[in-house]
Q: What sequence folds into this?
């Protein structure tokens, strides 16, 4: 009996703990959403109490102001375009490389694969300075290209594809080979349909990283023409007059697309992030 | 004929990706190391030459850079243990079968999908100075009115902790999801065997859960540590490294050196230091993880 009471108390305390953490996690988000809906002047004034989370007198004025003050659709398009091309290009080249490393025999394969593993450790931050001067030499500053091409080939994605393909049963391909299918055909007809989870994982991880890209675009772009959203909000928030309602409306619109993707493909997001951990 | 794999097929498939890695990672990486040993400075009248370890001597005697290294180290020492404990506690609580589990997991993960730049901007307002600011009001509330309003982001003692809290808010959910997956991979028989042996809840946690979770824990600690050394976005947006370098980081200093002051070689040397730290941490993690495997 005593044990059961103890158990129930522990459960209740656990629940309360979860709810407190949940409130702290959601508070900044609720603050942003509520602030985006109320008059600019009230956002800061009401930040100190519960009113901060309540959009009293809600209107869409701030959203209208954002469109009037900056080229939001342009930034949105830039972000979508850049992220989408990196994801699609990355899925193609990295999956092919992962397959070559996992399943095909070729000269230099093992040496090159160990180099890929080395490259995997190099963060963008460590190479940003020379890469900047390199792309300047190429004449690529202030373009879409400079924000896309350097990030298509990705060592970590290759590694994820490689480990997944290693785990596929070989019989699948052997049957196709006997039927006379070539390498590319085997990959497209046999491997691809059996590898949806790893494609989803890589796509989601890549999209998540690129949608938030800030440092690189900050270094290589200057005009609004090709700048993505993360950079645009950092500039928008320094743009006078300082109107927090507008800034929050910008924020809500910026996070909305990825939030929708997240809620729809939630299972894949969680699995994608989790696999990166398990494989480590 | 077509059944035989041509010898060059592997090369052909791997070439696009390998070419990309060569031009955009390997080449700049080699350049970073080479540049770090030169005196390259844009607009400088001096001829380009190799200066050996001079740049490293300079950055390690530069108070801003040493402060940046210290700040990154402090960041790791504070954020990594706190975030790991919080994430572990959340994962353990959510591991049990309970009402609303998926909802909790989804909402805890929510900050992970927010771009860092947006988070930084929102938290600037949360840290607004004056008693009506959200963080100031919150601290006044929980301290029973004992808290005096502070200007967090312009306070030499509070600017870095303020950024730490922002990162903690965002990172805990990420770490929790990885730990939760690790917990679910622990075979149920182990718990059953422990229960038959009469182990209580705490004993099962100590003798089954934590040892089984060790590699996952080591991995999440590694990732969080490396992310802490790459810290840039929040610093750039929230404090610009200030006040007086109080919240600067290695990457922020590298960008300042290479792009604001045009001291390319100096900036390259800083990023080489950054990479060396990342390499050491990765090596350490692999070593620890291997030992665990041998023991297990």
A:
């Amino acid at each position: 009996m005593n044990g059961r009471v103890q158990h129930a108390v522990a459960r209740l305390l656990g629940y309360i703990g979860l709810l407190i953490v949940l409130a702290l996690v959601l508070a900044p988000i609720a603050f942003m959403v509520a602030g985006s809906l109320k008059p600019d002047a009230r956002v800061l004034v009401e930040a100190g109490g519960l009113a901060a989370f309540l959009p009293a007198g809600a209107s869409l004025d701030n959203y209208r102001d954002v469109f009037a003050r900056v080229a939001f659709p342009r930034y949105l398009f830039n972000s979508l375009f850049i992220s989408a091309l990196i994801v699609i290009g990355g899925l193609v080249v990295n999956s092919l490389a992962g397959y070559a490393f996992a399943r095909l025999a070729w000269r230099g394969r093992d040496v090159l694969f160990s180099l890929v593993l080395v490259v995997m450790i190099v963060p963008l931050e460590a190479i940003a300075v020379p890469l900047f001067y390199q792309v300047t030499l190429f004449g690529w500053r202030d373009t879409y290209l400079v924000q896309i091409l350097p990030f298509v080939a990705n060592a970590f994605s290759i590694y994820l594809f490689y480990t997944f393909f290693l785990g596929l049963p070989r019989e699948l391909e052997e049957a196709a080979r006997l039927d006379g299918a070539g390498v590319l055909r085997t990959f497209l007809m046999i491997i691809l349909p059996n590898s949806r989870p790893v494609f989803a994982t890589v796509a989601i991880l890549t999209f998540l990283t690129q949608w938030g890209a800030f440092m690189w675009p900050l270094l290589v772009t200057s005009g609004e023409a090709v700048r993505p959203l993360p950079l645009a909000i950092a500039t928008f928030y320094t743009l006078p007059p300082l109107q927090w309602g507008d800034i929050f409306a910008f924020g809500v619109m910026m996070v909305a697309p990825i939030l929708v993707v997240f809620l729809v493909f939630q299972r894949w997001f969680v699995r994608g992030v989790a696999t990166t951990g398990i494989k480590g | 004929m077509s059944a035989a794999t041509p010898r060059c097929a592997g090369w052909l498939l791997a070439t696009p990706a390998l070419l990309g890695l060569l031009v955009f990672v390997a080449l700049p990486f080699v350049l970073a190391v080479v540049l770090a040993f030169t005196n390259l400075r844009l607009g400088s009248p001096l001829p380009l030459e190799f200066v050996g370890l001079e740049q490293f001597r300079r950055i390690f005697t530069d108070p801003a850079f040493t402060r940046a290294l210290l700040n990154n180290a402090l960041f790791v020492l504070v954020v990594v243990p706190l975030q790991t404990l919080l994430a572990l506690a959340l994962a353990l609580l959510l591991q049990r079968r309970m009402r609303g589990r998926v909802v909790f997991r989804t909402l805890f993960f929510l900050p992970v999908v927010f771009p860092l730049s947006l988070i930084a901007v929102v938290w600037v307002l949360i840290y607004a100075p004056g008693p009506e600011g959200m963080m100031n009001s919150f601290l006044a509330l929980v301290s029973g009115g004992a808290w005096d309003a502070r200007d967090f982001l312009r306070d030499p003692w509070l600017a870095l902790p303020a950024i730490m809290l922002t990162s903690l808010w965002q990172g805990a959910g990420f770490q929790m999801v990885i730990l939760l997956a690790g917990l679910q991979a622990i075979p149920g028989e182990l718990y059953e065997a422990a229960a038959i042996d009469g182990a209580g809840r705490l004993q099962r946690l100590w003798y089954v859960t934590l040892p089984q979770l060790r590699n996952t824990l080591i991995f999440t600690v590694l990732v969080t540590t490396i992310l802490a050394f790459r810290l840039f976005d929040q610093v750039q947006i929230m404090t610009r490294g200030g006040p007086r370098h109080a919240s600067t980081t290695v990457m922020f200093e590298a960008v300042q050196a290479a792009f604001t002051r045009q001291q390319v070689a100096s900036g390259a040397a800083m990023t080489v230091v950054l990479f060396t730290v990342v390499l050491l941490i990765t090596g350490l993690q692999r070593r620890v993880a291997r030992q665990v495997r041998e023991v297990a």
